[in-house]
Amino acid sequence: MILTDEAPWFYRLLKDSEIKQALQQTVPVPFPKGNGPSSIIGGENLVIMKGSEHPAEAWAFMKWMTGKEAQLIMARAGLIPTNKEAVKALSLDKDFYLYPYMEA
Question: pTM here?
Answer without folding.
Answer: 0.57
